Amino acid sequence: MSIYKYILVCLFLWSGWIQSVNGSDLHAPEEVFAYARDLEALGDHRRAATEYGRYVSAAKRTPEQEFPRLEEGMYRLAMNLAQAKETDAALRAFADLGAVFPRSRYIPRALFRMGQIYEQEGAVGEAKQRYHHLVAMGMDTELSALSRLRLAWLALGKPGEEALARQHLQGVKHPRYAEQAKGMLHEVDALPDLPYKDPWVAGSMTAVLPGAGHLYLDRPKDAGLALLSNALLITGSVQAFSKGISGLGALLAVLEAGWYSGTVFSAVSLAHKHNQRLRDDRVNGMGMFLKPDVKAVGVEMEWQY
Asked: Using one digit for the tens of pLDDT, what is the confidence trace for 133-147?
């Protein structure tokens, strides 16, 4: 054997050995799957997703070959893509799982994870749709309870939907999450009793005496500024007219009318912002009731409130 042939043979054997070590030999799909599980256990979700993708891709390319863990592989592919922040690819992978295995035991977990992804992406409507679907299926009471908690949380994102939030919370029957639902329900019931400020009162007080509405809102600096600025403009306008400087007096009067209206509007707006901030702070505080049991979902997840 010539030296060149010997080198080529060695390279060929070395390449095959490396493929086997890396778990990427598609002639041994179970090795690929096992390697992907190892990467997943190490928290290397991006590479784990790549290996699960190899497994799934091989199954699609060679339908005559048996892939006993295809269903699980498709699920783990989607979950690891989600963990790697490849959200679009993860959503497609979840949808692919549902299309190939519409009765898969992983469907509830997939729906819940999709709902979370859509929440993080700001697609609240899509998130609600997945949670509602999961609840309607009734396949996993634990994940259904978690979905109801999430639906209640999303309902509280809009003032006036407290009744809907209560409905979702009252539907949480799973013993593991009953206390969380009870605690959250107590907080929802307390929302109307927060120390809100009446925008109408704030505006009316400001209309009678500029700055009074801001003082009602516990904003003494704004109150002082409103009183002083309006007083200066009114005084300047009156003095200008009294001295026969009608043009300047009219100009200052027009400026005062605009400034006065703006002061009233400011008081009303600040009252609304005060109330919204109070409510948002209370609702955000309910986040402590939303931490799920990661075992129920199957793969550890990050939660943001």
From this structure: 999 987 678 899 999
